[in-house]
């Protein structure tokens, strides 16, 4: 819009120059015609000569008016061509902007859908992690309770075996009961993850 070709179209300048040139020529003719009236006086013999002079002036004025109208029409047409070109550019820009707006809307909608899907996956994954964590805690509590109950049962068996050990009256029975005590201790250690440790079988106690 700010280019020299738009602000000062070449075709318009050409028409203006032609109009001014022809206008100058016609104006000179009219000036000469007007001055001719002075030359005719006081020798003018009749009204007919005056009427003829006036008709020439009127005709020249009409010619000048017609000339001006014609050139103004030409200049207007040239400007209309420029305006039409500008309107075409404006329409082209408008179409481009509309396509850009549609493309932007599609991109924004795709981005929104992408993050919406990502959040859904994240929520599902989070729920899955919470579920697995709860299941793990539940199994750990279950294993801990089973282990505690088993240890209590083993301790009870150990107490029973020790009590029986104190009541044995013969060496054979004492050795047999002591072996049971050792077995219970081994079982308790194995259950606690300590493995089987050496236990004195000759009354020496734990090694």
Describe this structure in words.
The protein is an all-alpha fold. It has a domain at 4-90. 86% of the residues lie in helices and 0% in strands. The chain contains 4 helices and no strands. α2 (10-40) packs antiparallel against α3 (47-167) and α3 (47-167) packs antiparallel against α4. The longest helix has 121 residues, at 47-167. It starts with a helix and ends in a 16-residue tail after the last helix. The relative contact order is 0.05. Residues 195-207 have low confidence and may be disordered.
State the main characteristics.
207 residues; mainly alpha; disordered C terminus
Q: Can you count the beta strands? A: 0
User: What is the tally of helical segments?
Assistant: 4
Taking pLDDT < 50 over at least 5 consecutive residues as the criterion, the unreliable ranges are 195-207
Global morphology: rod-shaped
Helix content: over 70%
Strand-and-helix sequence, N→C? HHHH
Instruction: Kindly estimate the percentage of residues that lie in beta strands according to DSSP.
Output: under 5%
Question: How far do the termini sit from each other?
Answer: 104 Å
Radius of gyration: 60 Å
Summarize model confidence as the mean pLDDT: 79
